[in-house]
Specification:
- With 441 residues, this protein is α/β, with parallel strands linked by helices.
- Helix content is 31%, strand content 17%.
- The protein has a seven-stranded mixed sheet with strand order 5-10-3-15-16-4-17, sandwiched between helices. A two-stranded antiparallel ribbon has the order 1-2.
- A hairpin with a 2-residue loop joins strand 6 (160-162) and strand 7 (165-166).
- The radius of gyration is 22 Å and the shape is globular.
Length: 441
């Protein structure tokens, strides 16, 4: 029997449910193994953390491949060969430039736009189009969702949040247009339902009504497809569906096996544990990339200026309060703890991406995940020498495993231009960019 040939957009369908498939060998049956890698899509994501970092425990001393990860970055040791540490990049439009206080609002709004935010607490907000949306506008028609915006801290987009700047600036990383932000979704259930519910279909509602897993609605379609796939593809599809079920159960979206005994069905909502919340959202991002539901995403760990406390790592003070450390060594040590905690969650995301085979490598190999903040040192509110990482190899277009140091005042947006080139979404400029960033390959 001839091998099954699948479209890259093939899905498993059920009543109100549509589950995209991961990359399978059956989708590129006529390609040699040498060209399979070029057929797999590239993905681009931006992960944002607020309030800068303790640069003393962040920045490697040596430049090039023979560097040692400092204490704050040590959890990334297993992924060192998948990583670029970039020093010297600047977000000039996060600076006052005549507008006075408000560095937190500007840091986040300028991070992906490279534009100066209009100082207003009213409805007349204006900044620029963010790099993720530049990619989404050019590539969005290739996937079900042009982009995905997720986060772990909510907040509205109206009112005054930072010295006369609208909350829209410090709560939103993604900007569809200079005046329209893309609000992030922080509820894992809402993200799951968006990813796997059929457009206009009653899938999630039926799932809740009958206390079933979303996979129950596509079992017939899945079993039919399994019989037409090779052994590698069957294993890959089975692992993907198991990952969906696991995430669904953690959200509280699967059937509770104790319902008959009078146990209540798990409530959907935001996990009370911040680590669990971050990891669950990271798993959802992984599923979105794995199923090629989108190729562009933003993930905000916390809003800029966030004063969240980190009692789960025994840091009871607020993050923003600590960032104004005035060189107090005890406060600096606690900032380093928070930085390391964030990096541990980033490492978890990278581990999930790297665990998934795709083409001749892994899903992580085909990703470019930017991690960073629009602030350098939160005490100085400086926006030069930003803490920036890039994980993944961009489908073989990035030579990872190095620490690169760029001249001071090199625009951060130069990095984004270079990554957009690799996505096939080239543009002449973004915000304050001056050209492409050298030496990435």
């Amino acid at each position: 029997m001839a091998a099954k040939v699948l479209s890259r957009r093939a899905v498993l369908k059920g009543l109100g449910v549509s589950i995209a498939l991961p990359w399978l060998e059956a989708m590129t049956p006529r390609l040699s193994m040498a060209t399979v890698g070029t057929a797999t899509p590239k993905r681009l994501a931006f992960v944002y953390v607020p309030n800068g970092v303790n640069l003393g425990t962040w920045t490697p001393r040596a430049v090039g491949p023979n560097y040692t990860l400092p204490a704050s970055l040590a959890p990334l040791q297993p992924y060192k060969n998948d990583l670029l540490v970039l020093s010297g990049l600047t977000c000039d439009k996060a600076r006052p430039n005549g507008d006075g206080a408000g560095d937190h609002a500007r840091a986040m709004s300028a991070f992906l736009t490279g534009c100066q935010a209009r100082k207003t607490a009213g409805a007349d907000i204006q900044v620029g189009v963010s790099a993720d949306q530049v990619a989404a506008q050019r590539l969005g028609n290739t996937t079900r969702f042009p982009s995905l915006e997720i986060g772990c801290e909510g907040g509205g987009s109206t009112g005054n949040c930072d010295s006369g700047y609208s909350c829209a600036y410090s709560h939103n990383l993604s900007w569809r247009s200079p005046t329209v932000p893309n609000p992030k979704e922080i509820n894992p259930r809402a993200v799951f339902d968006r990813l796997f519910g059929a457009p206009g279909g009653p899938g999630p509602a039926l799932q809740q009504q009958y206390n079933q897993s979303i996979l129950d609605f596509v079992l017939e379609d899945a079993h039919g497809l399994m019989g037409q796939l090779g052994s590698h593809d069957r294993q890959r599809l089975d692992e993907y569906l198991n990952s969906i079920r696991e995430v669904e159960q953690r959200i509280g979206g699967a059937a509770n096996t104790n319902v008959a005994a009078g146990m209540p069905r798990p409530a959907a909502g935001i996990p009370g544990n911040y680590r669990d919340h971050l990891r669950l959202m990271g798993d959802l991002l992984t599923l979105a990339f794995q199923g090629d539901l989108t190729r562009v995403a933003t993930f905000v760990f916390a809003n800029e200026g966030s004063n969240r406390s980190y009692r789960l790592i025994e840091v009871s003070e607020g993050h923003h309060d600590l960032s104004h450390h005035q060189n107090n060594q005890e406060k600096l040590a606690k900032i380093a703890q928070i930085n390391r905690f964030h990096i541990e969650q980033f490492a978890y995301l990278l581990g999930r991406l790297r665990s998934i085979p795709e083409g001749t490598g892994t899903l992580l190999d085909n990703c470019m995940i930017v991690y960073g903040s629009g602030n350098g040192d939160g005490n100085r509110h400086n926006h030069d020498d930003l803490p920036i990482l890039v994980a993944g190899k961009g489908g073989g277009t990035i030579a990872a495993g190095r620490h690169l140091r760029y001249p001071r005042e090199t625009p951060l947006t130069n990095l984004f231009l270079s990554l957009l080139d690799r996505m096939g979404a080239s543009v002449p400029a973004i915000g304050d960019s001056t050209g492409r960033l050298a030496n990435l390959a």
